Amino acid sequence: MRWLQVIIPFVAQVPSIAGAEPIPIARALARPADQVTVLVGVSHVGLKRTLGDDHTLDLRTWTSTAFPTSTLYPVAIGKNAPAARTVVIGGRVVGQQSRALTWREMKEKLDGAGLLAFGSADDWLVVDGARYENMMDDLRPRGVARFVFRHIWSRHTRDDAIENDEVIGGLIEDCLFEGAFMFLSEQNGIWQGGYALELSHVLARLEPMPYDTAVSRNGAPGKPPADGSLVAGKAHGQLFKHFDTTGDTPLEVHDCVFFVSQLSVNGPKAMAFPPNATWRNNVLIWAGGGSYPGTLPASGVSEMNLLTHSRAALEACWDQAVTTWKQRHGVTSFEEVDMERFIAPDDPVRGQRKLSVRLPDASGVVSISTDPR
Questions:
Q1: Quick one: the chain helix, strand, coil %, rounded to 5?
Q2: pTM above the 0.85 mark?
Q3: Phi and psi (nearest 5°) for 33?
Q4: Which stretches within the chain are classed as H helix?
Q5: Which residue has the higher pLDDT, 10 or 34?
Q6: Could you give phi then psi for residue 88, rounded to 5 degrees?
Q7: Among 288, 236, 243, residue whose Cα is nearest residue 269
């Protein structure tokens, strides 16, 4: 079979995250005993901590089922006293609410996040190896100069996988967002300069969620979903929420795979990829029919759609990328992972791997892999 290999040349250039760099995870775990907090077991109540500078929160064998009965923020760090150079390792956070709740019901009553983390305005925050399931938002950074989110796995996220509404720069790397209503939000803040935001080797798929057609929130008028966006009572938003050319963090996006299956509730215009960005070697899988309805960059994003491939081939492409990610990270199931490999996976991607997409004809199988540079 003849293969068409689509590899957009990659140049080893990343946004500025210079200065005092986040320490390796092994060093974070080796901090002095009074600077490492280890939690184990299953918690049904919220974890709220005020940590000192240079503190590690080790949650590798800890699970939270506190959302939403006990708290809307199962892990909340530093709200009253933000600290510098906090490292959070591991943690599995699982929302207990019904998955039949609509997006609007969730937004009005359960608008929380798996992790709410405040940090120093002149330093960094790291979250590595965390898992989130059935949360409203997964990660909400606040106040920090920059963040690093690495080896995150989330699924069935009812709103934003990453709610970055303070428009903070940093790095999102080697993460799997297996199903979210929205992927990345920057809807309220204005970038103040400083660090760009790099997305490296991210897999992100939008998942249609139960969505009602009511047009009110807390009694105030709202807007109905866009025509054609509601399919069998379910809908999703878009990959990038409220990005424009003025107030957003400059983006550097490379070696990522995105999967979108239907029109956004906010219409095709909202589905545009951010213009204030550099794109290299990314793949967009669009399974909604025709060409992707949002505006795409002139280069750096290869679109796969039903015009050239079957739905089965598109799904197989995504499944291959996900399977490879899980194998590298020592995943048996969402409940059972090898945490040593999860936070230090086979074939680390930083500067060493590139995304390779091989496309056969419309009747064949499509594969995505990360190959040596």
A1: 10, 40, 50
A2: yes
A3: -55, -35
A4: 25-29, 103-109, 311-328, 339-343
A5: 34
A6: -110, 125
A7: 243
